Every structure is written in C-alpha cells, then in structure tokens.
Amino acid sequence: MSPPCIDLHAHSTASDGILEPAALVARASRLGVDLLALTDHDTTGGLEEAEQAARFHGVPLVHGVEISVTWDGTLIHVLGLGITAGEPTLEAGLESLRRRRNGRGEAMAAGLASVGVPDPLAGALRQQTTNILSRTHFARHLVACGFADDVEGAIRDYLVPGKPGHVHVEWASFDEAVGWILAAGGVAVIAHPGRYGLDAERETRMVTDFMAAGGTAIEVVCGRSRSGHAEDYAELARRHDLRASLGSDFHAPSATGVELGRLESLPDDLLPVWAGREWAPQF
Ligand code: AMP
Ligand code: MN
Ligand code: MN
Ligand code: MN
Prior knowledge:
This protein is α/β, with parallel strands linked by helices. It has helices spanning 21-30, 47-57, 88-113, 120-127, 135-144, 151-159, 174-183, 200-212, 229-240; strands spanning 6-7, 35-38, 61-71, 74-81, 187-190, 217-222, 243-247.
C-alpha cells in the first residue's frame, strides 16, 4: 500500500491562490490527496466553501490559516492547523492584519509608481480576488504589464526588502499569532523554515521564542525546497522536540511548480503535527 498523501499547506482565491476553494479541493481529490489543509493568508474566508466541497468529494479537510508575523524585524509565517473559524479572538486578530495589508498596499503603490509601474494600486486590485491584498497581487500586475516574466521574478526584483515596492509592516507578534491559534483550538506551526534567511543563532532564537509563545510544530517537508532541506529541518525538530508537518504551499496550477500532495514523507521518528488531534488521518 502506498503511504497516505497528506498536504497541510495550500492557498485559494480567499488570499493569493488562483483556484477557488471548491476547485482546490476538487483538484486535491483528483490527485489522490487523503488529507488537505486550506491555509490562506490572514483569513479563514475560504473554509466554508472548501468544507462543502470536501464533503462532496470525500476529502478530509483540515481548517487552517497562515498568519503573518514579524519577529526581530523578519517576516515569519505561522500556520494554524485545526482551527475553528469564526472564533472571535482569532477573527479579530486576522482582521487587524488585513487592515495593515491595505495600508501597506497604498505605500507599495507609491514606491512602484516611482519606478514607472503604471497604475500599481488599481492594477493590484484588479488581480485581487477577495479582501486580502497580497504582494502576489502586485506581482501579477507587474507580470501583466511586462515588468517581470513571472510572479517569483516580480517579487524578487520589486517587492522584497531593498526594492522599490517593499514596505515594512509590523505584523503580529508570536505571542499574538500563536495565542489566536490556540484560542481557536489549533496547533501553531512555523511554515517553510528555510525561507527566512536566518543563520543558526537567529534560527535557534526564533524557534525558542515561538515555543515560549506556545508554538509546538514546524514544517519539515515543504514544496519548492532545496534538496537536504527536509533533513535539516527534521534535525531542528528533533533538537527542540517540535512536532513535524508537511505541506506544498500550493498557490496555482503550473507545469513546473509545486503540485498539491507531491511531497516526500515525514521521517518516521518525528511526532506528526496531527498526533492526538481529532483531524488525524484515519489510516
Ligand atoms: P504578502 O503576504 O502579501 O507579503 O505576500 C507574500 C507572498 O508572496 C507569499 O505568500 C508568497 O506567496 C509569495 N512569495 C513568493 N516568493 C516570495 C519571496 N521570495 N518572498 C516573499 N514572498 C514570496
Ligand atoms: Mn502566498
Ligand atoms: Mn508562507
Ligand atoms: Mn503559504
């Protein structure tokens, strides 16, 4: 028997994904995903539609969210898995982050206009699918008007620190984000730990601060990670006694990019993030 196909990190049009929540679940079903989490940025808005589709297709759905955190000046993404959408503490927190996104959007547009990008705010808003305004929407506008070949290139050349469209925002603290997740009955997970450019000393400090806030898990297996990544992050999980998660961070169908559920398995010796949870896979 092949091992279960589990993917605990994916986006829909509720934030910066390309597929509607129902279409995302239908794709997961077609691809044989046995357990899927929808984890949109700073919103639970896609979960109701996804849950309906999940029942129709018979794909168990973990209700999730990906929260923007600023730790020591660095943007860190914290996943909440197994949350109850609508929980007031969580929803009020996410709402405050969405407001910060809108303020950032205006400042980003001014920066992009200064290097000749036409109509940056209106363009990004045309790419936006719900009430979340993401750098991804600005990136799609940059691609649409020929400033970059793809979203990755647009982000790299225009939207990261040091580039004209980058604007620093203080997002949630670990204490806030993890507190909201725990209040909503979820598990807090550090997403894609390899993407923050932290040296060993800062990485240890980051994990220690995350755990002090009540965080208990880390994404050990990620989509689009360099080879050797999973072994490094398995070792980090062992060192700190963290639970392990796995997720593709799927945003859009593409011929060359990541796909839902196409992930290596978690190392056997690690405690999976779902252990003891009611949403644990039934195999
Ligand atoms: P935001 O949450 O609005 O700051 O947008 C960040 C989004 O851009 C992430 O969720 C990713 O989907 C996408 N992204 C792709 N590459 C990068 C990168 N190198 N740095 C930051 N974000 C990236
Ligand atoms: Mn994203
Ligand atoms: Mn992320
Ligand atoms: Mn993500």
